[in-house]
Amino acid sequence: MKRLSIFILLIIWAQLLSYVYGQSASPESEKLLRMGHQFRLGGQEAPDYQKAYNCFLKAATLGNPDGFNCMAIMEQKGIGREKDESTAVSLFKKAASLGSGKAMYNLGLIYKFGYGVEIDYQTAYEYFQQCSDAGYPGGMYGIGYFLFKGLGVDQNYEEAFNCFSKGAKLGRSSCKHMLGISYRNGYGVEKNLKKAREWLEAAAQDGYDLALDELLIREEENNTTPTLKSAKVDEIVLETPKVYKKIKGVSSSMNLQGSWEGKLATYDFSGKYLIKKKKVTLVLQQNGKNITGSWQLGDSLQLNIQGYLTDSLLFFTNADFDEPDRYQVSLDWAIEGGTLESYTEGNRQVLAGNIYLYSSYIKEPGRPTILLLSKELEPVNPIDTITNKVEAEYDEVAYNEPDTIPKSNFSKVVTEDQLVEKLVSGLNLKVYPNPFTNQLNVQGYLDTEGIVSVALYNLSGHLVQNLFSGHRAVGQFSREFILQIPPGSYILSVRSHNQQKSIMVIKK
Fold this sequence. Notes:
Layout: H1 2-21, H2 26-41, H3 49-61, H4 65-77, H5 85-97, H6 101-113, H7 121-133, H8 137-149, H9 157-169, H10 173-185, H11 193-205, H12 209-216, H13 250-253, E1 258-267, E2 274-287, E3 290-297, E4 301-310, E5 313-317, E6 320-324, E7 330-345, E8 348-359, E9 364-365, E10 369-376, H14 382-399, H15 410-413, H16 416-423, E11 430-432, E12 439-446, E13 450-458, E14 463-472, E15 475-482, E16 488-495, E17 500-507
Antiparallel strand pairs: 1-2, 1-10, 2-3, 3-4, 4-5, 5-7, 6-7, 7-8, 8-9, 8-10, 11-12, 12-15, 13-14, 13-16, 16-17
Helix pairs in contact: 1-3, 2-3, 3-4, 4-5, 5-6, 6-7, 7-8, 8-9, 9-10, 10-11, 11-12
């Protein structure tokens, strides 16, 4: 408390002196900044961190906001003093309010990685935008990176490319690297391998290691043709695709016990290009609605998983694994959520849907990922088969959904790529932010006039809260909800008379 009081007095003192001296003291403040850096680094003598801190403080009092920025860095990293991330954030914000582009960039990093605050991509993006508007190339890289991956904003390769172009012209190495990536893969610009190599070499000459790593890889990331163009797959909201057939009473008779085989399909950040596919074997044990099992990914990686069955959906979590990225850096991935739906086709049962991967190493979600699995159905009583057929036909009429999957043997008729294409063309429903604190926004498109209902359930399938029920015309609809509920994972269900979508949302 004493340290905080002294800090507040220093800020007030700095503000008063800054008002008195204004910009006329700028040359002196720049000199103090240089002295502070000399004291911090040491040179021929040992570093003197207290003198460095005092120089930065004096520079701040003479109207130089970068003095506050340098003080904040010492507080944040514990250089010559006890580490204090809270004080660092306050100092960075003070520097940013006085026009320090460096502080704006540092605040963007703080909210992106959660240094002393909760991770908040929207706030991080806003600080990067301010930094870019102030003419600093770091901000141009920051907003370009967020647009490239769709962090806190709608994913947009074209806008990201424009940001990287601006930053590269100002000499930012990371922007040069991302320009090379964009040209090499045709992200936001026409693919041009010559220009890609020029920009990657320029970044590598600056000493940017990732650019050198990219040059050493012979194949571009996106070496597939865009044969699976479709609506964007949102890896955050875990959409349940529209094309699944709803089978009446499926929850009471669904049997997921046994061994499933298929593919894990990973897309680029736009959800349009298939980047890679891996063989997956899933062995499930079912005890009522509770699911446990093992997941074999590729030839060697095996994970233990847990899940829960509700209606025709399987939600599963609790699986962590390490896997190298494109540059062979081992990343820790956690399956933090998954929404799979089961349906039958001929003599096959299918499990398919979205998987939400998150890495605590880079503190980001992974690329859009879809899991496609199937297994042979066990022989059933002919009377049960007739009953299920009647119920399925009744339910298809009630939901008015197109019968897009041929009524014959799944493994022979529906190819893997055809199934992937069907899965990524879901309802245009958007739920954000996710994870959320208190406010949750729901947007979507209604293709038929009628009643729309929105409800929240826990993972046990029990109703938590009816959020909305009312008549809506054809077209876009949007609702904002303030939810005072305990932190945890929930299922948001949006229904109309012929459409339904269930989405996992996380309350922080």
